[in-house]
Design brief:
about 350 residues; alpha/beta; 13 strands
């Protein structure tokens, strides 16, 4: 399918940390947006935030996205679907409590897209680098291979099948993201083989997402997710020792991830592809060091650390997103500075 440069986009879970930035970026680039939320109470803030866009922004209620036909009415008259809503937790006992909502919710959206194939042109699904994740080989402390979009996480689903409830919570989450994206591609490829699909599929895979917030968080007590993780670990000094200075992961700025969603619609000939969207690797101490340049009261941690001794459980490349989507990424310093300014403006620093 060709690029989509105008029309109406459906954004699922429109009140979430990432999704609100996606809604804003879409509206700023001339799209009309219909957002889904689970209850009317979650719509009030969105109506107020985007009231300047008038009837170009609307909200519909989808109480349970895993129910068959949950999105049928929401997809009516839609040109593109951006499916962002998904369970994000590692705190479950039964892995099916995480896997089934993720898989069923994804399939529900795509089934609605099939029913409206006459109007829907593209579906963007926000997956996760968890669906690419591979652990270091046995006997190796750190992961040295750089993973790209051709790789799938076979490890976590296999571990969860083997251990069930006894599998680590993080592996249950990784399995849910992997199996949900797998389900999306399997449905897409099956329907494509039949002919007359009508729309194409693009998936975006992100690591931990940080950045300033524009979703509803009226108090520090209601400030959660990965932004709260960053606040606790950097501003409040919740981590000590090797958790700060040795064990690394990867990050992306929420605004760059939102931009990737819009580029995924407006870039020509990207249908049928996966894209890793990541800003780079990090150690928590690196965030601390930068944050202290803008807020000296932040605990110093251990600035004497040696970054060359860092251990990474998985590494990714974003070269494809740069070359094909033309995406440009903010630096760790730029993002950290903006987070500090956002926290200060809210009186939380």
């Amino acid at each position: 399918m060709p690029a989509i440069t105008s029309g109406k986009a459906l954004v699922t879970g429109a009140n979430g940390f990432v999704a609100v930035w996606v809604v804003q970026d879409l509206l700023e680039h001339g799209f009309a947006v219909r957002g889904t939320v689970r209850s009317e109470s979650k719509a009030t803030y969105l109506h107020d935030r985007f009231k300047a866009y008038g009837d170009k922004f609307e909200v519909v209620i989808v109480p349970d996205m895993a129910v068959e036909g949950a999105f049928d009415e929401a997809v009516e008259g839609i040109d593109a679907i951006l499916h962002i809503a998904s369970p994000v937790t590692a705190d479950v006992d039964d892995p099916d409590d995480l896997i089934l909502p993720a898989v069923n919710g994804t399939e529900s959206v795509l089934q609605s897209a099939l029913k409206h194939r006459a109007t829907v042109k593209r579906v963007l699904y926000m997956s996760s680098c968890a669906a690419v994740y591979n652990p270091p080989p046995p006997g190796h402390a750190s992961f040295t291979r750089v993973l790209d979009e051709t790789v799938w996480n076979e490890y976590s689903p296999a571990l969860v099948r083997e251990k069930g409830r006894d599998a680590p919570g993080l592996e249950k989450y990784r399995a849910s993201k992997t199996l949900a994206e797998r389900a999306a591609w399997e449905l897409y490829e099956t329907e494509q083989a039949k002919g007359n699909l009508g729309w194409d599929l693009v998936t975006l895979l992100a690591p931990l997402v940080f950045g300033p917030i524009i979703h509803e968080a009226p108090t520090l007590e209601r400030f959660g997710g990965t932004p709260r993780m960053w606040y606790n670990n950097v501003v409040k000094g919740a981590l000590q020792g090797e958790a700060l200075t040795k064990y690394g992961a990867e990050w992306v700025d929420v605004r760059d991830l939102a931009r990737a969603h819009v580029l995924g619609l407006t870039s020509p000939e990207v249908g049928g592809q996966r894209f890793i969207i990541r800003g780079g690797p990090y150690l928590w101490q690196q965030f601390v060091d930068v944050a202290r340049r803008y807020a000296e009261q932040i605990p110093a941690g251990d600035p004497s650390y040696k970054p060359e001794n860092a251990v990474y459980m998985s590494r990714y490349t974003s070269e494809k997103s740069k070359k094909v989507l033309g995406l440009e990424y903010r630096t760790l310093e730029e993002m950290t500075k903006d987070i500090i300014e956002d926290l200060r403006s809210r009186g939380w620093l």
